[in-house]
């Protein structure tokens, strides 16, 4: 112990108050565990402060402005003016409300909150450095620990986030003006959500992506619907190009890219947003002092209860290897770890992890694709319902995309679904539930769905797989 250290003890120490950590801390406290939660920055982590919530708030504003200004067909004539700094303040208000709520919930559940940065001293103690000059430090000894330190943006050579025209997703979400020209490096889900948002807010957007399509990991027909809409919004997309640098010009900046064959291209911009992924935060905590070792990308491996190789130390959320970096995954893992600490017989079953992309239109996926099902040895049967055949989709004037349901032909069990279209992020929940409940196509198809709703398209896709669809031709 260093001079001035105060040592305290806790049954469970949770490091990081993002959706993995704060949820774990609350659930542990609910189970009667003496729990301490340490956070170095802001309650709610990346998700509430710099990720899911502010991005969706901005998307809502951009959609509203864009819709209002593009509804002549319906006889609505408007030319909305977006006050970006007011939109940012509104977004920040939403964030503050939620982060304040997290703090209150933790306190109300009896979680002991500590502000500071944790580093392991050994496998049963951390030192907490409190922020700011002369704030000192303390040692906390623990019986169990949950590491929930999340992730940070990946920086690429030639693009320093400290440079004013270079934006991380966090900078983009704090913008108080809309750049006239924005180059987005990376066509993954964060890059495409923000490209669409800024295009709708009036920026001239160019996306450069090293691969040959946007949204890697999603099926090509799903990505195609989003790409087509992005093109219609005027987003200029260039594939097979890696961003290599930028330089100041009289009028803004010039972003340079390079193809695999060494061909160089240049794009004028006012800002360049780098969104090429995130890496786990495991390198700032002296994890070796606790006997832990991360893999070469920084991830921690865990068992089904989220225990690391050091049995009383758990890891959840973005630091975990093999599970997607998503807020709801972090929270579920947090609950599993907390309940395991409390002695409950729990395990993380990632059979059906839904994911959503808030592009235009949205994407929602869960479970297996047809190809996954084949690879897993099933004989898949697939049903699809296009939104252009949905009455409700047409009444919202958003009828691009489809619902696809994948099931096992023999048993009828629903194995997966892919939705691209209006409210896909909400609709996917029904199919996640279906998979979790072991529902069959028959169960989904024979459930009465309210009319007129987008959810009817889910029912109709299941009917289509059974050869019984009414509003689309059966295969
Ligand atoms: C722009 C953007 C949009 C996103 N949109 C979505 C979305 O729509 N849906 C979705 O599911 N996911 C989304 N994500 C991903 C989501 O934010 C993360 O998956 C989620 O936040 C991970 O939660 P976590 O608890 O593991 O970590 P985090 O939320 O990153 O929280 C970790 C916390 O640990 C703290 N910490 C780190 N080290 C220490 C230390 N040594 N001591 C004390 N505290 C420490 C950090 O300050 C941080 O608050 C988005 C991310 C971004 C960037």
From TrEMBL:
Keywords: Disulfide bond, FAD, Flavoprotein, NAD, Oxidoreductase, Redox-active center. Coiled coil: none annotated. Residues 353-462 form the Pyridine nucleotide-disulphide oxidoreductase dimerisation domain. SUPFAM superfamilies: FAD/NAD(P)-binding domain, FAD/NAD-linked reductases, dimerisation (C-terminal) domain. It catalyses: N(6)-[(R)-dihydrolipoyl]-L-lysyl-[protein] + NAD(+) = N(6)-[(R)-lipoyl]-L-lysyl-[protein] + NADH + H(+). PROSITE patterns: PYRIDINE_REDOX_1. The keyword Flavoprotein applies. Transmembrane segments: none annotated. It comes from the Archaea. Its EC number is 1.8.1.4. One of its GO terms (molecular function) is flavin adenine dinucleotide binding. InterPro entries: Class-I_Pyr_Nuc-Dis_Oxidored, FAD/NAD-bd_sf, FAD/NAD-binding_dom, FAD/NAD-linked_Rdtase_dimer_sf, Lipoamide_DH, Pyr_nuc-diS_OxRdtase, Pyr_nucl-diS_OxRdtase_dimer, Pyr_OxRdtase_I_AS. GO terms for biological process: 2-oxoglutarate metabolic process. Belongs to the class-I pyridine nucleotide-disulfide oxidoreductase family. PANTHER family: DIHYDROLIPOYL DEHYDROGENASE (PTHR22912:SF160), DISULFIDE OXIDOREDUCTASE (PTHR22912). The active site is a redox-active disulfide bond. This is Dihydrolipoyl dehydrogenase. It comes from Haloferax denitrificans ATCC 35960.
